[in-house]
Amino acid sequence: MNERKHGIVVCSCLLVVLLIVPFAAWAGDSHPGPLNAYVVNYPLKYFAERIGGEHVKVEFPAPADQDPVYWVPGIKTISEYQQAGLILLNGASYAKWVDKVTLPRSKLVNTSRKFKDRYIRIEGAVTHSHGSEGEHAHEGIAFTTWLDLDLAAKQAKAVADALGRKKPKLRDTFQENYAALEKDLMSLDRSIKEIVSKNQTNPIIASHPVYDYLSRRYGLNMKSVHWEPDEFPSDAQWSELRAMLKKHPAKWMIWEGEPMKESAERLKAMGVDSLVFDPCGNTPDQGDFMSVMRRNVENLKPAFH
């Protein structure tokens, strides 16, 4: 073979290699080890771990004593988010810090984007404090989307699809794991519907305006105050409750966490019992997302018997 023909063959081979390698990288797994995924709340952490299993390392760096929706990470933690292989967002105005920093768009997945037309808009903002987290207002869009368990299943599907795009060879595994998770979520959904249907018009008071999606999905007759489980309500807050009870004679108040004994006893004296329905936005002290939700379902039963 003369040098000219030899050169043509070599160039042709190089061209084939250059064409094949990028395609192979695209079609195969660009993350040979566990995918490093960062999330903004605990439900997404649970979904990603259930679906991804050993193939995904899920990081949720929010401190255990803070509400992740209002938490703002430091520079080091933001850098860790930026370097992640995947960033799972809740959407619906959750974790507003995300809009104020630069994160790689190719890694971002808003798990509620496909049902943004079902976001609940909050009318009439009320500003108050959450201890060390400072003042904030419940305004704009309600964010605890996963308390509608049908929407939670849709968010889990978005997680499964995102993992499949990052690790296409494992797409079938992720979809199988998602199907098992969806079955669990929809079982809880049916349980709540069954419980509430026994006395659906029963008035309920929420201690905090975080149950919008729960209320809409299950048709609850609910009004909200702005109380914290670990703070005894002020005289003004008790007066507000008494006025509310005249038009909305609730016998039960739903709390995010176990209320102070003094608060529960005073409510009891007013004819209002307390129950806990933990939104589970942060990592629970015991159990996991599913066990917390099952406990929530059990806690609802006395209010609708």
Notes on the protein architecture:
With 305 residues, this protein is an alpha/beta fold. It folds into two domains: 35-113 and 145-185, Nitrogenase molybdenum iron protein domain (Rossmann fold), CATH 3.40.50; 189-304, 3-Layer(aba) Sandwich (Rossmann fold). The protein has nine helices and ten strands. It has helices spanning 3-27, 42-52, 75-83, 149-166, 171-197, 212-218, 235-247, 261-269, 289-300, and strands spanning 35-39, 56-59, 86-89, 108-110, 121-129, 135-141, 203-206, 221-224, 252-255, 273-276. The strands form three sheets. Strands 2-1-3-4 form a four-stranded parallel sheet, with helices on both faces. Helix 8 links the parallel strand 9 and strand 10 (273-276). Helix 2 crosses helix 4 (149-166) and helix 2 crosses helix 5 (171-197). The longest helix has 27 residues, at 171-197. The termini are far apart.
Brief overview:
By secondary structure, the chain is an alpha/beta fold. Helices cover 43% and strands 16% of the residues.
